[in-house]
Amino acid sequence: MKFVQFVYNEKPNDIRVGYLEGDKVVDINKADSSLPSNLLDILKNGDIEKVKKLKSSNPPSVPLPSIKLAAPIHGNDKVLCIGLNYKDHCEEQKLTPPEVPMIFSKFSSTIIGQKDAVRLRTDVTDKVDWEVELTVVIGKKASNVKAANAFDYIMGYTVAQDISARDWQKGTRNGGQFLLGKSMDTFCPIGPCITTSDEIGDPQNLDIKCSVNGVLKQSSNTNQLVHKIPNVIERLSSVMTLLPGDIILTGTPGGVGMYRSPPEYLKPGDVIQSEIQNIGVLETRVEKF
Q1: What string of pLDDT tens digits covers the 289 residues of the chain?
Q2: Cβ-contact 274, 132 below 8 angstroms
């Protein structure tokens, strides 16, 4: 299934959860009022299988033009990220891949959805970069999980942009710490949907691409991951409890703006298209804050 969150055009502040049926969306709570109206609560309640059974009853749906897609999950506890986790991204920097996953985080408040705008604070940075990433969505509480069992704790996968202010991330503006360069408002677009694990195929063999204004910037495959998803979950869950709805951005391939010649950065008016096989295309506008 492909889960989405959305608002009706006439009710822009009422976020609903649904799933895609071709060019239509089924509103899960309207089809079964005993189910929550947002995805995080569905995960917390363990209701995914109930939703899958709902699908077999062919509930009513609404056409996509009558709704606006939002971030497919919100209100989650953690947004965790892995740096330098693609072989081709390490190669473009002439770096040896790290022996252990390099983990950092973003605030969950940075999450935005399909066609929402990344808003650039042009008064504090002019070096904002793109990073398309396959993103894991945790489906149930995970603590001390072994790699062999890690996929059992994954609900599905989505597309993310790990938007990054490079002068704050890597320069002197934050002492070499990643947090502020990665966590400015709107710096975590995700979407357009979450594809459940049973429909994703092999998550470590998916084509992944990013274009800016129609020009291809990144093109790779998740088989280039240095640290595989099960090993990452084992490492993370050994030191913290992963909760339903937590997301893990698994790293970006080569082709980011900072390491192009000459370097390239995002500017107001740009449109980013981030695409991952079996999930879809996340479209993100760039505006001035």
Answers
A1: 999 999 999 999 999 999 999 999 999 999 999 999 999 999 999 999 999 999 889 999 999 999 999 999 999 999 999 999 999 999 999 999 999 999 999 999 999 999 899 999 999 999 999 999 999 999 999 999 999 999 999 999 999 999 999 999 988 899 888 999 999 999 999 999 999 999 999 999 999 999 999 999 999 999 999 999 999 999 999 999 999 999 999 999 999 999 999 999 999 999 999 999 999 999 999 999 9
A2: yes
Give me the count of residues in the chain. Answer: 289
Helices (H), 166-242: 166-169, 179-182, 197-200, 229-237
- Please state the φ and ψ torsions of residue 137, each to the nearest 5 degrees: -115, 120
Residue linked to tokens 């989405």:
4
Phi (first) and psi of residue 262, to 5 degrees = -75, 165
- SS3 category, 263: coil
Could you count the other beta carbons within 10 Å of the beta carbon of residue 256?
23
Find the angle CA(133)-CA(92)-CA(108) to the nearest 5 degrees: 25
How many separate helices (H) and strands (E) can be counted in the chain?
8, 19
Residues 156, 19 contacting (CB under 8 angstroms): no
Q: Which residues contact 41 (CB under 8 A, 6 or more apart)?
A: none
Residues 61, 230 contacting (CB under 8 angstroms): no
Tokens representing residue 77 in the block: 């506890």
**Cα gap 1→20, rounded to integer Å:** 7
Q: Would you say the C-alpha torsion 224, 230, 233, 238 has a positive or negative sign?
A: negative
CA 145 to CA 259: how far, in whole Å?
A: 36
